[in-house]
Every structure is written in C-alpha cells, then in structure tokens.
C-alpha cells in the first residue's frame, strides 16, 4: 500500500557576472551563497557521513570515488531556518526545498528559493567592482551544450520493486513534459533540428535507466540515498524535469508525479503504457508542439502524449474516488484534467499556465512585431530573459506583475517560507532547532542533527549528541512543537529525546 508522498526539489541556477573580465562561476556562486545574511551561524557544517551517491537502487554500488567537499563545507553550505539547504554545487548555486507533504507547499518553498537567490544576488553585488552585476537564471541550459538540473525527490515504500517503478513511471515522465516543460528555442547536444521545443532538458537524455546525473543521463535515475530509514523508505530521485517559473506547472509536476507513484505502489499502474523507445519518445514529444504525434507502445497501440496522460489520469480519478483525499489532491486532479483538455484542443489556450506556452506566446508576438526569424539573437535573448529571477527584469516576473500569469499561492506565503519551515514534516524540527539552538549545533543533514553539549560533572568537556530523524513524517509541529517551546537549552532538548528513545526501546 502507498505511503505519504513526502517530497522536495533541488534546483541548480545558472550564474554569470556582467562586465567581468573573466567569467568564474564557481567564485560567483560562492560569493552569492555566502552573501545570504538571514542569520549568522556559518560554523554549522553539513554532515556528509550518511550520503552515498554511488549506491544503486538495482542492488549494487557503482565504482568511483565518493566525492565530498568537507574542507570547504562551512564556506559553501548555508543550512536554512526554513528547513532547506543552500549551497554551491560545482559551478552553480543550488537551493533545496525542505521536505513537504504536498505540491502546494512545494510551490511555496520553490518560489521562496527564488527570493533567497535574489536577496543573495543583491547582497553579493555590493562586493563587486563598479559596473558589474550578477545575473542568475532559473533555467536548464547555458546554450553552450551544458545542462544543469532541477531534481525532484519523492518518498516511496522500500517494498515496491524498483522494476515496477521503472515500468510504471517511464511513460509518465516521457509524456508529462507537455505540461511541465519550460520551453526552449532551438536544440543542443546534436539533437534533431527544430525552431522551438517543449522541454529544456530532453536533448540531454541518452539512456533509459542509470545512476549518472551528468553524462549518459537516464530518464529513470537509480541513485539510492533514502535520507531516512533505509529498511522502510526509498527516495526516488527524478532528474528528467525542467526548472519551472510557472507556479501552475510546478504544482502539476510535483502533484501528478506523487499521485502516479501512489498508483505504482498500489499496483494500479504497471506495464500497460510501456513505450518501445522511451529515449526517442522523450525527444519526439519535446518537438511536437501540437502534442498529437503518436508514440509506439509495446502492446502495439499508438497513442499521443496527451492520450497517454489521459489514461494515467483516468486511473488516478477512479482509484482516488473511493479514498478520502486532501483538497490539494482534488485540485491536482481537476487541473490535470483541465490542462489535458486544453492541450488536446489548442495548447496556446494555456498561455497563462504553462511555461513553454507562455514563452512561446511571448516570442511569437515579438517575432511578429519585429519580423524576426527564430534564429535571430534577440529571440535567444528572450528565451534566457524569461528565466531571469530579478523581479524588475525577468520576463516571467513582468508578466506576473501585469496579471498575465495564473498563480497557485499568495506572495505573502512565499515570503513567510523564506524563514519558516513547513509544520508537517521533520523540516519543522530542523528549522526550529536552527533558529533556537544554533550555537549548540555542530552538524546537520537531512536525517539527523548533531549537538555539542557541555558537560560539567568532572570539569568542562564537550560531547557530541546526535539526534536521528529517520522518519520524514515525524518531527512535526504537532509532535515536537510543545517540546521545543518548553526546552530553553539544547541540552534539555537532547536529554528529552534520549529519554524518549530509551522509553520506546524498553
């Protein structure tokens, strides 16, 4: 039976410095991340001990070095009081949302990430020479053949065989880009020529299943780092999605994927939509702006991306109609149905909801006014400028300001989420502890916090006490809120947890 779909998103942003003598994205990323001044506890380190990106969900460990940057840990990591993480990944600033229980919260915390990046950008520019400015874009390609990711994570039942996940999820991921794609002018990675396509990422996927996220990118990633009790949980790492500016697209991306994973766990979806050539289909769907091109299934049927999505939707509606579902789930099903109906009629009707349609409408209007071809440099500039996170410059934000974009959440919710964690996952415990006991925290990771507690029985000494957080559904306000309110020191908190642990084990 399916388990609650705790979820999160990791987004890598592109970065450059205008008017710089030489581009150094690593130094620029370090400057931006370290310029975030929300609070002053930079000495807390990110604990990599329980991370192993080489463990494969198919039951083996890949060859290679387990790389960490522990020497630079306190420099490039910012552990946020909203329960998330903000750090430098290679040549990109990266923001990770806290764990969320639903797609609406995902939208709130993803948008909070954009604000955090923009606040950081403005602070970092104060350290630059006159005339230089930092440009940050929430997109997936530098137009020079390099792609960077927006990775989703979903909590799953460890008992679900991984091959079942592959069979049930592959066709969904290949076809969901018709409402999750961010749109892209032209092609990269020696792809088949086209003027405009639905997805920014499709050109960069070359395998069906695999462990890598950088080369030979697979549609289904097999990284097996649960960041939780590994006997109970699997963290499904989805790397095939675009980074979204649109709240509506983000909402559907996380919400529909979570529902499909529940259907897979409940054995409602298995092999009935299996595609003959998933990698080719991924690229074909991205280039089919009509959303009507037929894809070949293993059972001999030929269905379009919209038709495959409609069949997934029908299974979801039937399955969840007999269950007590949340208002968010009801809304996801409703919006999913609405979007598919519009895509079947004419995708351009969705020019206030979906990134790739909004951007296409914007570019087509500009081309018509100025009589420009698709290969004109100004068209490529519009493509990039849509993803600029500056509210005064980014084309998405200018459309939003002018009421041309349909919203899912309120701006005040996003601002609140910059410095407050969700209340219904373990992120609440992490965020509250960081705010209240920062000086006593030694290290943090997703599934534990380590405190340094001063003991004075026989002279002063410092001991490290690790508090495990192996269950993402725990650590909520309902469970630990009163305890956090009562404890005045980290020592009192750790003592209370140790006593509770002994009581559970006795």
What does this structure look like?
The chain is globular and about 75 Å long. Among the domains are: 159-225 and 245-405; 423-505, no CATH class. The protein is built from 16 helices and 20 strands. The chain is α+β, with helices and mostly antiparallel strands. The model is unreliable at 66-75 (pLDDT under 50).
Based on DSSP secondary structure assignment, what is the total number of beta strands?
Answer: 20
The description of the largest β-sheet is: 6 strands, antiparallel
Strand order of the largest sheet: 6-7-8-1-10-15
Unreliable parts: 66-75
Number of helices: 16
Briefly note the structural class of the backbone.
alpha+beta
Q: Mean pLDDT across all residues, rounded?
A: 92
Round the Cα radius of gyration to an integer and report it: 23 Å
Describe the global form: globular
Helix content: 25-40%
Distance between the termini: 29 Å
Content of β-strand: 15-25%
């Amino acid at each position: 039976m399916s388990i609650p779909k705790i979820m999160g998103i990791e987004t890598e942003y592109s970065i450059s410095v205008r008017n710089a003598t030489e581009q150094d994205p690593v130094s620029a990323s370090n400057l931006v991340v370290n310029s975030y001044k929300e609070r002053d506890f930079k000495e807390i380190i990110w604990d990599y001990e329980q991370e192993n990106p080489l463990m494969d969900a198919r039951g083996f460990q890949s060859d290679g070095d387990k790389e960490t940057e522990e020497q630079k840990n306190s420099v490039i990591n910012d552990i946020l009081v909203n329960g998330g993480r903000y750090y430098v990944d290679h040549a990109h600033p990266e923001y990770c949302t806290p764990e969320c229980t639903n797609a609406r919260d995902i939208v709130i915390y993803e948008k909070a990430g954009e604000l955090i990046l923009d606040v950081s950008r403005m602070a970092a520019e104060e350290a630059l020479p006159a005339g230089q400015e930092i440009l940050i874009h929430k997109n997936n390609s530098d137009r020079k053949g390099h792609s960077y990711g927006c990775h989703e994570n979903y909590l799953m039942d460890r008992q679900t065989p991984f091959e079942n996940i592959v069979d049930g999820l592959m066709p969904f991921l290949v076809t969901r880009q018709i409402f999750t794609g961010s749109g892209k002018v032209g092609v990269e990675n020696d792809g088949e020529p086209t003027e405009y396509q639905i997805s920014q990422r499709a050109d960069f996927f070359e395998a069906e299943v695999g462990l890598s996220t950088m080369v030979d990118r697979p549609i289904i990633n097999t990284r097996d780092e649960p960041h939780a009790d590994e006997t109970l949980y699997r963290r499904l790492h989805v790397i095939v999605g675009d980074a979204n500016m649109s709240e509506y697209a983000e909402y559907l991306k996380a919400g529909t994927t979570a529902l499909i994973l529940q259907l897979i766990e409940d054995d409602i979806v298995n092999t009935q939509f299996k595609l003959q050539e998933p990698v080719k289909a991924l690229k074909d769907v991205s280039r089919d702006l009509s959303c009507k091109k037929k894809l070949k299934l293993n059972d001999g049927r030929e269905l379009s991306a919209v038709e495959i999505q409609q069949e997934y939707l029908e299974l979801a509606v039937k399955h969840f109609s007999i269950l007590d579902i949340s208002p968010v789930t009801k809304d996801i099903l409703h919006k999913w149905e609405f979007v598919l109906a519009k895509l079947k009629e004419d995708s351009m009707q969705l020019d206030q909801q979906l990134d790739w349609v909004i951007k296409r409408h914007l570019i087509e209007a500009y081309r018509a006014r100025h009589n420009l071809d698709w290969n004109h440099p100004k068209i490529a500039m519009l493509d990039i400028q849509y993803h600029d996170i500056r509210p005064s410059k980014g084309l998405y934000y200018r459309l939003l300001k002018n009421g041309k974009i349909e919203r899912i959440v309120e701006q005040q919710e996003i601002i609140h989420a910059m410095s407050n964690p969700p209340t219904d996952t373990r992120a609440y415990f992490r965020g509250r502890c960081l705010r209240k006991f920062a000086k006593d925290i030694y290290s943090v990771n997703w599934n534990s916090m380590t405190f340094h507690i001063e003991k004075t029985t026989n002279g002063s000494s410092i001991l490290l006490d690790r508090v495990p957080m192996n269950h993402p559904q725990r650590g909520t306000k309902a469970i630990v809120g009163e305890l956090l309110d009562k404890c005045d020191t980290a020592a009192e908190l750790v003592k209370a947890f140790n006593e509770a642990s002994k009581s559970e084990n006795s």
